[in-house]
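Hey, why these numbers?
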Amino acid sequence: MRLELTDQTALRRLPWADLKAYLDAQGWHLTERIGDKALVYVPGGAAAEPVEILVPTRDDLGDYASRMAEAVQTLAEREQRSALAVYSDITTSGFDVVRLRAPGEDADGAIAIEDGVTLYREAENLMLSAACAAVDTRRNYHLRKVTEATDYLKSVRLGPSERGSYVLTIFSPVQPRLGGQQRLELGDEPFSRMVTLRLADALAAARRAADSAVADNAFDPFDAAVAEGVSANLCEAVARLAEAARGIEIGLTWARTRPAGRRNQRFQFRREVAEVLREAASVFRRSEPHTDERLTGFVIALDRPVEQFDGSATLRILLGDKPRRVRVHFEQAVYPQVIRAFQEKLVLSLVGDLYPVGQRWELRSPREIRVEEDQDTDAVGGRSG
């Protein structure tokens, strides 16, 4: 069936660079340039009959829309698809496309409104967590506080739901790669591409970690996956998507204007995996470091006698309204203050970064250290060891 695209406004808005990128990706060959007005493309391989596509290279030409319509229709006939389907593919040439497919939709492709709201909300959290991981890999993020990630999200667009099932599409714009550019390292890619590459790596790592965690009854696989972009935020977003959609399929298609050097990718998360991912998110958050914390506590032990003190000590502090033992290593310049606080059972006040290490805590980079003469023992859990 011949289905023509006749919307002149839509055709005039279609960037010629996206048409060129589509032809390059589909194996067509540039054979001629017509001044600064057009490029002539022919199909690769042995064509049954001579055919060419004229790509206008100026959108101010009077016949721009008609030339684009001819190009789309020629491609539709050769690919045995509708012109509208070809047009849709060309319009995404400059985008990395993330597709969230809900296999649990009704027979007519609809889903409950509450589940739909969850899909849209968690799709945003999924992209934001990947953007945060592209800036810095961490176990947990305060998503809205990573400026580069929130700025990136302003450029992301939601596409129309695709027919045949409930599919939410996300368009992430990518700068085109110029013809002479070599394949770049991850750190040299534009930020938007770094985000989608990180998303792909993190989803693959989360899928593997979930399987390994169940098999080994251990959290270690998730901990090891942090370097690949797995975080509490990503785990929680995928878990909620899988619950709302009764399983979720996440696909990534790379922009034709900037080849990614890897195949399009697809990841499936069954609804049963959501529970594992939620637990991983919970563990990540419980073990999140506390940076720039102002703490007060008692020095309850020195690793060595006073005359041989090397800076390593144990403090008793309140953390989350619970008394905790914390390991600290002090610089030599503050040894006298630490020893005095220990010997006289005085409160030590300091700022540092608290890190969970197994079942214990370590305080790193202690600073702004002072001995408190007036003490409130209840505020630091008492003096007992």
